[in-house]
Amino acid sequence: MFAHIPPYAGDPILSLNEAFQKDPREGKVNLSIGIYFDEDGKIPALASVRAAEKLVVEKAAARPYLPMEGAANFRSAVQNLLFGADHPAVRAGRIATIQGVGSSGGLKVAADFLHAHFPTSKVFLSNPTWDNHRAVFEGSGIETTTYPYYKDGALDFDGMLEVLDKAPARSVVLLHACCHNPTGVDLNRGQWQRLAQLLNERELLPFLDLAYQGYGDGLDEDLFAVKTLLDAGGPFLLANSFSKNMSLYGERGGALSVVCPDAAQADKVLGQLKFMIRRNYSNPPTHGGQVVATVLNTPELYAQWKDEVAAMRTRILAMRSALHEVLSTKVPGRNFDYFLSQRGMFSYTGLSPEQVDALKNEHAVYLVRSGRMCVAGLNRRNVEVVAGAMAAVLR
Ligand code: LMR
């Protein structure tokens, strides 16, 4: 019956992470998957999140099915966080927000929605982008193409504008709101403003992916792209995640918001998103969303969370400096300044797939084959080892 089924080729990120777990070598270092590890190499349980979880569990509330669109307190908390409770778009009810299953779930629901209601639109992805973006959209039957993003170690802003300027109206443009995955190279504020203008003029539909809020410059600062598009006044989509900034990976806390021209359109969009959800997974799970909502809706926990996110961000910056310093000593004559200028969890190292293979096979240091390094996996104990291994494969 199943003999014709081909073997799964594996996922460039998740299957590599599985291979890392199975690797018996001592001292192995996981710089592959986008997960924040603390100084002890552990995934932290944030104090704010633990306190929120206690409150959720103590309530011992019944667990009926959630509505298809998710819990109301989660959805309003997400809107307040991302758009601001007092923003006219929020007050006018012209944003449709659903609780997703992680932001990947939000991407998938949006992809089905776009395929149904924008059947001739292509999705423009940055080159390069997160390995799964193409798969999610194409899996929903949408054609994808790319726009230039990264050249010679820097943002190719001119190349990006040139291609987007020629994109057909109603094309969807997928943008990383902060901490670009995989390069760590972001647009500056002036560039976001210029881009927002072009997207409006050309009637393109922006789709922001915000998976790393707080890891760039801060929880509020990392919303610059969101606020810029909101103020530009056009419609856009936004998928956001709490996996990384609340260290809640397995709880799949995330949302999808669609900013619409008016409340009547937002209502219809919400209805169609519910239809897509019902066909995919019916309704989201309760627990993780309630933990997220409790952190966001409890002022003391929110303040504590903000500090905890700042601490994670600061530690990553310290690791960037440490790696830069050791590597600059070990490999004189080569410029590693990109480790200092790139933002968020990732750095694009410029290592070739063969060099990445050598790092894994000879040194038990895991990076994604594109050369992407998750800097958040470095700590004071492994940074020398990683720098030594990189120096060896660069020789
Ligand atoms: C990553 O890019 O490593 C993370 O977003 C995890 C994933 O699902 O790929």
Automatic annotation (TrEMBL):
GO MF term list = identical protein binding; L-tyrosine-2-oxoglutarate transaminase activity; pyridoxal phosphate binding
Aminotransferase class I/classII large domain mapped to chain residues: 27-389
Classification via InterPro entries = Aminotransferase_I/II_large, Asp_trans, PyrdxlP-dep_Trfase, PyrdxlP-dep_Trfase_major, PyrdxlP-dep_Trfase_small
What GO terms in the biological process aspect are recorded for it? L-phenylalanine biosynthetic process from chorismate via phenylpyruvate
Q: Name one GO cellular component term.
A: cytosol
Query: What's in the keyword line of the UniProt record?
Result: Aminotransferase, Pyridoxal phosphate, Transferase
Using the UniProt record, name the top-level EC class of this enzyme in a single word.
transferase
Task: Please give the superkingdom of this protein's source.
Answer: Bacteria
Q: Name one Pfam family in it.
A: Aminotran_1_2
E.C. designation(s): 2.6.1.57
Please give the cofactor(s) recorded in the UniProt entry for this protein.
Answer: pyridoxal 5'-phosphate
Recorded family membership? Belongs to the class-I pyridoxal-phosphate-dependent aminotransferase family.
- How does it associate, per the subunit comment? Homodimer.
What protein name is recorded for this chain?
A: Aromatic-amino-acid transaminase
Q: Which organism is it from?
A: Inhella inkyongensis
